[in-house]
Write a structure and sequence with these properties.
The complex is a heterodimer of chains A (112) and B (169). With 112 residues, chain A is mainly alpha-helical. Helices cover 65% and strands 5% of the residues of chain A. Chain B starts with 13 loop residues before the first strand and ends in a 9-residue tail after the last helix. The chains are: A mainly alpha (112), B alpha+beta (169).
Chain lengths: 112, 169
């Protein structure tokens, strides 16, 4: 489970791969179509797709000849949940700091 | 904790992951930089806000200088005490503060926090970058008594894919 999370983040750490995922979020796409906006060769894109596939972030149809890639949302959701937990912790900490700073400045002897 | 409630809306917290071992948090505060710096570096002030709403924090040690150490004791609602400790790696008043962060039961799993305080006049922007020594550590932190119910939101995913202005799922 943790391993998968690491693999997800590692796969997401590359901007081209994030761009591919973003592209796939609007539907299945073939390798040649994916390669178009990136000024990259199909083999270079295929390499990225392999990383994404290994991380479980995409799946590729075996039967269709052009093997379109499809986004798999679950690992992304796990990753976003993980960051969400972290975000909540800091959000609470910062909210308390915010309250405290307001409190300090609302005193008559405040620093304004 | 009964600070006067103001009608002013809170500033939003922005979270991104610049790399797969870093988490970056950004937030604006309606207070001058010196005050925000003091809140981070003075024990009696830190105790007022550090940690969660449900916990109380006691600052046992706080040596704000490069190489200086700190140790916080956080008591949760069940009365259990959680100890956090670390060492200051950068102290540059009132611009930047760097320190290591370690949860004692998980000694050796160290996170590096680098906090910068940006001057915006009557406001201060805090940028906190946490660097995990390994991806496993980053994952472990979350399973060390910092659990919250899993969020059902795809907000963070939006952040991850934001560079592209992609609409997500």
């Amino acid at each position: 489970m943790q391993d998968r999370l690491s693999q997800t983040f590692s796969a997401l750490s590359d901007p081209t791969r994030r761009a591919i995922l973003a592209r796939l979020s609007s539907g299945e796409t073939s390798v040649s179509d994916l390669a178009k906006p990136f000024r990259m060769t199909a083999p270079a894109i295929t390499k990225h797709l392999k990383v994404l596939e290994k991380a479980g972030l995409i799946s590729r149809t075996r039967h269709a000849q052009w093997r379109p890639a499809k986004l798999e949302a679950l690992p992304l959701k796990e990753a976003s949940d993980w960051i969400e937990q972290y975000r909540k912790m800091w959000e609470e900490r910062f909210d308390r700091l915010d309250d405290y700073l307001r409190h300090l400045q609302s005193k008559p002897s405040g620093t304004e | 904790m009964s600070a006067t409630t103001h009608s002013t809306a809170r500033h939003k917290l922005h979270v991104t992951m610049p790399t797969d071992t870093e988490v970056r948090m950004e937030r604006m505060f309606d207070a001058p930089r010196q005050l925000v710096w003091d809140a981070f570096t003075k024990a009696e002030m830190l105790e007022k806000w550090w940690g969660l709403r449900s916990t109380t924090t006691k600052v046992e040690k706080l040596e704000v200088r490069v190489g200086g150490k700190y140790r916080f004791l956080q008591t949760d609602p069940t009365g259990t005490v959680h100890a956090f400790r670390g060492e200051f790696t950068a102290v540059s008043p009132i611009d930047a503060l760097g320190y290591t962060f370690e949860y004692e039961p998980m000694a050796g799993h160290i996170v590096q926090d680098d906090v910068t305080f940006e001057d915006h006049g009557r406001q201060t922007k805090i940028v906190a970058v946490m660097t995990f020594t390994s991806k496993m550590d980053r994952d472990g932190m979350v399973n060390s008594g910092m659990e919250y119910g899993a969020a059902e939101s795809y907000d963070m995913l939006d952040e991850l894919l934001a560079e592209l202005g992609a609409s997500v799922i």
